Amino acid sequence: MKALINKYFEGETSLEEEAQIREYFNSGEPVAEDLREFQPLFQHFSAEREMVLSDDFDETLFQKMEAPQAKVVRMSTWPKQLLRIAAIGAVLVVAMIFFQKSNTSQAQTASIDWSKYEIKDEKVAYEETVKALKLLSSKLNKGTKKAGEEMKELEKVGKYLN
Amino acid sequence: MNQQDFKTKILPIKNRLFRFALGIVGQAAEAEDVVQEVFIKLWNNRNQMAEIVNVEAWCITATRNLSIDKLRSKHQRMVPMSAGFDLSDQAATPYETTVSHDVFDQVRNLMNRLPDKQRDIMQLRDIEGLSYQEIAESLNVPMDQVKVYLFRARKAVREGLVGIRN
């Protein structure tokens, strides 16, 4: 059996020989001491083979198979054209409203006198700067951590794309 | 193909497809959905199926593709990543914190940690008992490569088993 197992790990066994190995480890008979470390692997293979779909799988499947397929309904040309014109009109209206609003807010911004808010005391200015940099660095760290986590997830998907 | 043909020729491989999907998506309910979708797709295209030589290989390919789509759309993850970003200093993933100390689970983890192609091939060979030819057709990988991947997978698992023992 040891020779057969070595052959298995060399990738040289036939399907029949692999079945023999599984049978050896799953028979319930005592396993040789030096082969005991391989037992969980071959027991795992046999246990996995026992995993099956739920009992109502066939029933649900045949119900869905018998249901008529959804058909793609094509729109006639006239309402399609009308919809296109309406969509373009809607985009133009939204764009106009947006432009008008942003112009108004710019005008308001321009009228603020920022010199009133400027910090004159050097010490206070220094403290404010340190505070701002601290806040910035904490956000940066958050971003790096999140990016790392996302990369881990992406990698799992990415492996399949190769 | 009528429903009787479907029942005798296709339905018997349902559990094989289920286990294969489960290996990728990691959740039984999701894997069940995948198999159902594959069969319905096959049924809806049954008129073109006569041209396909190996329907089982077609089903395995479709199962793999659909499982990956599900995984991608839900951003699900069943195993922690081994390479890439080093996040060892950060908090353990939910997966890692719930790892069981049971030897059986450890074997499952060993397989899940293999690169996906190696794991897919090991599963189709060692659990489903497919020939090299069948695996090559199902995964669209040359037969020599199937053997190479399988050899690497078994080697990695052997090394892992020694680690469990020690």
What does the model show?
The complex is a heterodimer of chains A (162) and B (166). Chain A is an all-alpha fold and 162 residues long. Chain A has helices at 2-9, 15-26, 39-49, 57-66, 77-110, 122-161. The mean pLDDT of chain A is 83. With 166 residues, chain B is mostly helical. The interface between A and B is large, with 40 and 55 residues.
Draw up the topology in text:
The complex is a heterodimer of chains A (162) and B (166).
Chain A lengths: L1 H8 L5 H12 L12 H11 L7 H10 L10 H34 L11 H40 L1
Chain B lengths: L2 H8 L3 H12 L2 H17 L10 H20 L19 H4 L5 H10 L3 H12 L4 H8 L3 H23 L1
Helix pairs in contact in B: 2-3, 2-4, 3-4, 4-8, 6-9, 7-9, 8-9
Key descriptive features of the protein:
heterodimer; A: 162 residues; mainly alpha; 6 helices; 71% helix; B: 166 residues; globular
The gist of it:
Chain A has 162 residues and is mainly alpha-helical.
Q: Roughly what is the average pLDDT of chain A, rounded to an integer?
A: 83
State the assembly state of the protein chains.
heterodimer
Counting DSSP H or I runs of 4 or more residues, the number of helices of chain A is: 6
Q: What are the segments of chain A in which pLDDT stays under 50 over at least 5 consecutive residues?
A: none
Mean pLDDT of chain B: 81
Which bin fits the share of residues in helices of chain B? 55-70%
Largest interface: A-B, 40 and 55 residues
**First-last Cα distance of chain A:** 38 Å
If you compute it from the alpha carbons, what radius of gyration of chain B comes out, rounded to the nearest whole angstrom? 18 Å
Reported for the largest beta sheet of chain A, the result is: none
Helicity range of the residues of chain A?
over 70%
Alpha plus pi helix count of chain B:
9
Rounded to the nearest angstrom, the distance between the terminal CA atoms of chain B is 55 Å
